[in-house]
Amino acid sequence: MLIRRITAPSADKIKSAITRLDTPLLIQNNPEFASFCEVWNLESMPSETEDQLVRIVTANREREATRFREVSLHHFLNSLHLRQEQDFRYLKEFPLAALHRRLPEYLAQHRFIPKSGIAGSAWIGSGQTTTGTHFDLFDNLLFQADGKKAVWLAPPYAISRRQYARKYDRFARLATPELAGLSDAVRIEVQRGDLLFIPRRWWHQVQNLTPSFTISGFHYSHTEVLTRAIPEYLRHGAHCINPFRRECTCHV
Q1: Which class for 160: exposed (0-12), middle (13-18), buried (19 or more C-beta within 10 A)?
Q2: Burial (CB count <10 Å: 0-12, 13-18, 19+), residue 90
Q3: Which of 70, 169, 184, 211 is the most exposed place for a label (fewest CB within 10 A)?
Q4: How remote is the C-alpha of 87 from its chain's centroid?
């Protein structure tokens, strides 16, 4: 399986490509993305953000028991360069406006978002942190603002329903196989300024190769809001209020 790549595209070309594609696409060397990364990176963020308590993930929650810990955001950001054995610290799905109230606006000015209907968030983690095998129910754009990570990708048919994990995850479905062991999977590396388009229902698994700052967003049309987003919100609401809820990625 080959991953399509385009270099130094305009925002309009990105929008056109993603609208028509149902296979992954890696976009590199976009000047507007590079400009964004000069301002928003792991080195500058402690001075750009207000300190606050945040909840970080301390394990591979897609494959292991879900574990969280509350820490100071500034302490977390300043300590990301410290390398320790079995070090796993990941701020996952953190609202962009909580990092800085103008960050969503600044991101829009750099034309990172080629489609309407985005639910975007920040993923900031130490080296070697991982996200287990899963697919998302909506198209996904993964923008690497700083650092480097490996992404394994496999088409929807690569994993059967018998291999789905029992664990619950909002807007996604988890699976037990490691993509690195599948013949249909391919590994790519995304670096600072890269944008990776992952179509809905494509399996992926991610590992930080260095401390990493990623902005990832689901993208959906108005039709998809009615047919998929609203049912998933209702499903998640039912999950949260159920006193007998099964194992999940969102609760300990």
Answers
A1: exposed
A2: buried
A3: 70
A4: 20
**Res 236 pLDDT > 90:** yes
Q: What is the residue-wise DSSP string for 74-104?
A: HHHHHTTT---TT---EEEEEEHHHH-TTHH
Q: Which two tokens stand for residue 29?
A: 């060397």
Backbone angles phi, psi at 128, to 5 degrees: 80, 0
Cα angle 60-61-65, degrees, rounded to a multiple of 5: 105
Which single residue is written with the structure tokens 């070697």? 128
Res 240 pLDDT > 60: yes
Separation in Å, CA 173 to CA 61, 188, 200: 13, 22, 11
Q: What's the CA gap between 250 and 115, in Å, rounded?
A: 27
| Joined tokens for residue 110 | 């750099």
- For residue 231, the model assigns a pLDDT of 92
Q: Are 59 and 109 in contact (CB under 8 A)?
A: no
pLDDT, tens digit (0-9, with 9 covering 90-100), for 23-54: 999 999 988 888 889 989 999 998 889 999 99
Task: Give this prediction's pTM.
Answer: 0.93
Walk across the sheet containing 172-174 and list its strands: 172-174, 130-136, 203-208, 149-154, 186-190
